[in-house]
Amino acid sequence: MYEILVITHGALAQGYYNTMKMILGEKPEFSYCSLEDGDSSEKLEKKIKESVNWKSESELLVLVDIYSGSPCRSAITQLLSSEKKSYLIAGISLPLVMEAYAQRNQDLSDIVNTLVSVAKESVINVNEELIRSKCNVEDE
């Protein structure tokens, strides 16, 4: 089993937590922290440090909103100073959070690329899908 930490700008991380709580009907088992307006990178790094049991032997999956944004850079700083086996994925989405949560009993190193694929595949141009569906119906 791996731990999950969601780190974002503003209240987005808490929004993912609350949405997962609504979907699951119970409190999800993952941590989150946010870069709030006026926070320094040092303050965010402290929040990250306090959000994870760094002595635990379980792997850690960190999900951030934007690659190279402050949450991502602060996560990298914290992860590099830790011996904890961890993976960092940038570009968070609800399908990614849901899949990561559903798979948390798996070996993270085995599924991290699958999680990235799930995130990529969840972005859909609905207009194209509707046109394709309409064409398929007309062809029948």
TrEMBL record:
- Annotated GO biological process: phosphoenolpyruvate-dependent sugar phosphotransferase system
What InterPro entries is this protein classified in?
Bacterial_PTS_sugar_comp, PTS_EIIA_man-typ, PTS_EIIA_man-typ_sf, PTS_IIA_man
Domain of life, per lineage: Bacteria
Q: Does the keyword Signal apply?
A: no
Q: What PROSITE patterns does this protein's entry cite?
A: PTS_EIIA_TYPE_4 (PS51096)
Outline the extent of the PTS EIIA type-4 domain: 1-123
Does the keyword section mention 4Fe-4S?
no
Q: Which GO terms describe its cellular component?
A: cytoplasm; membrane
- Pfam families membership: EIIA-man
Q: Name one GO molecular function term.
A: kinase activity
- What are the UniProt keywords, alphabetically? Cytoplasm, Kinase, Phosphotransferase system, Sugar transport, Transferase, Transport
Main location (coarse class): cytoplasm
The subcellular location is: Cytoplasm
PANTHER family the UniProt entry points to: PTS PERMEASE-RELATED-RELATED, PTS SYSTEM MANNOSE-SPECIFIC EIIAB COMPONENT-RELATED
What is the name attached to this protein's record? Answer: PTS system mannose-specific IIAB component
Q: What organism is recorded for this protein?
A: Amedibacillus dolichus CAG:375
